[in-house]
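Structure ticket #2291
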Amino acid sequence: MRKVLLRPAALLRTLSAVTASLLVLSACAENRLEASVKPVASPVVVEESRTFSQWRDDFRSRALASGIQPRVFDEAFRGIEPDPAVLRADQSQPEFTRPIWEYLDGALSTQRQATGRVMLNRHAATLQQIEARYGVDRHILVAIWGLESNFGSNMGDRSVIRSLATLAHQGRRSEFAQTQLLAALEILQRGDTTAADMTGSWAGAMGQTQFIPTTYNEHAVDFDGNGKRDIWHTEADALASAANYLRASNWQSGAPWGQEVRLPASFDYTLADMSIRKTLAEWSALGVQDARGRRLVNHLQDQASLILPAGHRGPAFLVMNNFRSILKYNNSTSYALAISLLAERFQGRGQVLASWPVDDDPLSRAERVELQERLQQQGFEPGAADGIIGANTRQAIRRSQIALGWPADGYPDRQLLKALRNRVQ
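Resolution: structure written out below.
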């Protein structure tokens, strides 16, 4: 899912009181959009030889052939020119990634918690109806609402048609952007909104729940029954659409997302991987306890995976099916953990008991690339040296940690990079 700048960067810098909060929002929808199109081998922009008007004319033929009415297309594209800011955002890659504890500080801010509680009370009747129809916990829905758009106050103000047309003409993921653009035109043709009102992020994520157009077409609902699926102006439609999406992503009503746990000193950290699933009874047999050192309470034989978001020196979590459902909304472990904990914070819970390794400095992108290159040179096979720490790189890190005699948690840090630099071949 993954993670869209809802305001230009220069404006964000001026809003010092809410900077951390807005940065969390920026990550949310972008991570989901990136997750929709991964893997991307390279961030290099593919040069488009056609002018924008030539591309537009060709795309118009494709749109009409797919059923878009000429009037709808021409009205949507009236006055549309490429947006240079969208191309800059598409080409940029952050030099540094924020450590998860900083991300969570913004996501779980006291202001966001307080506003979320107000919204839970204000929309209690609607949320009860949504819960009854879709089986998705209201606290999770309000947490998603809070992180995606700051409860509808920060949805992005760029023309979705202009953004997607820019990306379709000369972006890194042209075909994907064209698919989203066709879906956006379908939304306009159905009359759910107008081109002027169809605003969102630079990458085309829309509304209070930051749906990309294809997600909107598949999962948005008209919950208030006015004949339109309006995720921009109607809270009921936005929240119910998120619930419908989670239900389609195999959400289990009444089941927990997971819990913080405590690991024994001799634990095999290679088991900390989303691909490994065990019942709570099986984890308990391996010495895993809850965060307070008590025996795990089994829940309907749920299959749980162990994650270490900051490596073996940080907190550990067992995550279950509903956590995976949140990952389908946005394929970012940090995001899914933030949603899960924020939903609990609304209820006076969700405190992480273990300490984060705040003395760890995150690797820069250049250092992540170097780490992958050194892993490859030393035979650990991380895959492409693109600075993205994905599943292949984490497995390579585990292999290198085992060779070094370290806990094999798959976590990239400065100590490992230094060891690889000094390692004798």
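Closing remark: The CA atoms of residues 64 and 368 lie 45 Å apart.
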